[in-house]
Structure formats: C-alpha cells, structure tokens
Specification:
About 20% of the residues are buried. The two termini are about 20 Å apart. α1 packs antiparallel against α2. A 6-stranded antiparallel sheet has the order 4-3-6-1-2-5, with helices on one face. The protein has a two-stranded parallel ribbon with strand order 7-8. The chain is globular, with a radius of gyration of 20 Å. The protein contains 5 helices and 8 strands. Helix content is about 35%, strand content about 30%. It has a single domain, classed as Beta Barrel (Elongation Factor Tu (Ef-tu), domain 3), CATH 2.40.30. β1 and β2 form a beta hairpin. It is an alpha+beta fold and about 220 residues long. The structure holds flavin-adenine dinucleotide. Flavin-adenine dinucleotide binds next to β4, β5 and α4. Its EC number is 1.6.2.2. One of its GO terms (cellular component) is mitochondrion. This is cytochrome-b5 reductase. It is found in: Mitochondrion.
Length: about 220
C-alpha cells in the first residue's frame, strides 16, 4: 500500500502542472462565453446557468440522469477533445468531454476502444485503426475522461492522438471489462507493469485509496 501510495504521489506531482494547465484553460474558455451572453442581452440566461442549482433542481437532475452513462458497448460514439497536456517527453494527457450530467460508465478495471480513419479507402470502404486505452479518470467523474498516452514516433494511433486539436473528435466504444475489482476482494494485490501498462494498475490503486473501508494492501512494481 505504501509503495502504491508513493507511486500515486509521484505521478500526481508530475502531472500536476499539466492538470493545472488544463483546469486554467477550461476557466479561460468559459469566461468569454458568459461575457458574450451578457453583452447580447442574455444575462438572465447566463445567470440561470451559472448560478448554483437549488436542492430541488439537483434532485430533479439526479433523478433524470441517475445511471445515465456516456459510453455504449455496441456503438461508436464521438467524444470531443477538450485539451491536452504534456506529461513527459513522449507521453501526453488527453482530456475528452461529454455531457456533464452523465458519467463515463466505466467499472474498475476496464478499458475503452478507440478508432480513427487512417489510410486509404479500399473498394469505397473506410479503413480504421482500432486500439484499446485505459482511462485514468475516477469512474465517478462527470463530463470528462483522461487518457494517458505514450506517443510512438511511428505509432499509427498514438500519432493520430498527437495530431488532434481541441474540438476534434475521437470515436470510442466500450467499456471492455478486464477485471471486476470489488473492495477487499483480496487482502494483498501485487502489480507488475511496464510503460503504459501502468494505466489499468492506476485504476485499481485509485479505487483502493479512495475508499476508507477498503483495507487491501496494493504493491506496484513499475518497469520503465
Ligand atoms: C487493454 C489495453 C489497454 C491499453 N491502454 C493504454 C493506455 O492507457 N495508454 C497507452 O499509451 N497505451 C495503451 N495501450 C496500448 C495501445 O493500445 C497501443 O498499442 C499503443 O498506443 C500503440 O499504438 P499505435 O497505433 O500508436 O502504434 P503501432 O502503430 O501499433 O506501433 C507500435 C510500435 O511498434 C512499432 N511498429 C509498428 N509496426 C511495426 C513493424 N512492422 N515492425 C517493427 N516495429 C513496428 C511502431 O513504430 C511503434 O513504435 C493499451 C493496450 C491494451 C491491450
């Protein structure tokens, strides 16, 4: 547990400037939208949507959206790239957004699959490159998910990721469950991972650490 907690602290310290940059950029983008609304006489509209919701509104919203998830295991759905942040010389964080009233719909530990139209059309049919990735966001997060991706110089999909600009979309399907983690299902869990193999381990480690009633001891050995 100590080893896993130390690993998370180190990763957080590394990703903190990148994540802060993401948060700041969100803030900067929202401001002009509100200002424009006020100037064009939409002040009341802006006030309504920027005011904290009442308890009754939250209850109503909660009833409508409880259990609503953004992912569909049978359908390719488009998710918009909100922002990116560099984490190391070859690794980037990609934040995708969706309806903030919903959750992604991912259980620990699961991955998603992504596809991108890469390459020539053959016989009038589009060719896609398909690759799995493991979101590192808390499954309870509303409205966004983060992918931590190593960009390979010749990698088809990772180069596609690297070429994406905020506002571009990515097609995603899922989730695909790898292992259903339940609190205290094991007394100790040992994890060994290399490179980006860390991402599914992060899902489990975060799930253990965020639950005060989970007494699992998690050990992580990372190979670079
Ligand atoms: C369940 C699962 C979860 C995953 N989660 C993540 C994640 O969270 N983050 C992440 O970054 N990755 C993750 N991956 C890996 C990811 O799916 C891709 O494999 C990875 O991004 C590389 O894909 P690519 O298309 O960019 O590279 P590819 O085009 O597949 O190439 C990969 C590497 O091999 C080299 N290569 C390709 N073809 C050849 C060849 N013929 N000869 C020699 N070398 C070659 C390329 O130059 C490149 O360096 C996950 C994989 C799995 C199975």
């Amino acid at each position: 547990m100590v080893a896993a907690a130390a690993l998370l602290r180190r990763l957080s310290a590394r990703a903190a400037p990148a994540l802060n940059a993401l948060r700041e950029s969100n803030h900067i983008r929202r401001f002009p939208i509100g200002t424009a609304g006020a100037i064009s006489g939409g002040a009341a509209f802006y006030y309504f949507y920027s005011s904290p919701p009442t308890v009754a509104q939250l209850d109503a919203q909660g009833e409508q959206t409880a259990g609503v998830v953004a992912l569909d295991p049978d359908k390719w759905l488009e998710f918009k790239l909100q922002d990116t942040a560099r984490v190391s010389h070859n690794t980037q964080l990609f934040r995708f957004s969706f309806d903030p009233a919903t959750k992604l719909g991912l259980d620990v530990a699961s991955c998603i699959i992504t596809r991108a139209p890469i390459g020539e059309e053959t016989e009038g049919r589009r060719k896609f490159v398909i690759r799995p990735y493991t979101p590192i966001t808390d499954p309870e997060s509303n409205g966004y998910f983060d992918l931590l991706i190593k960009v390979y110089p010749e990698g088809k999909m990772s180069q596609h990721f690297a070429s994406l600009k905020p506002g571009d979309v990515l097609e995603v399907k899922g989730p695909i469950e790898k292992l259903r983690y339940t609190p205290n299902m094991k007394k100790k869990i040992g994890m060994v991972a290399g490179g980006t193999g860390i991402t599914p381990m992060l899902q489990v480690i975060k799930a253990v650490l965020k639950n005060p009633d989970d007494y699992t001891q998690a050990y992580f050995l990372g190979l670079c």
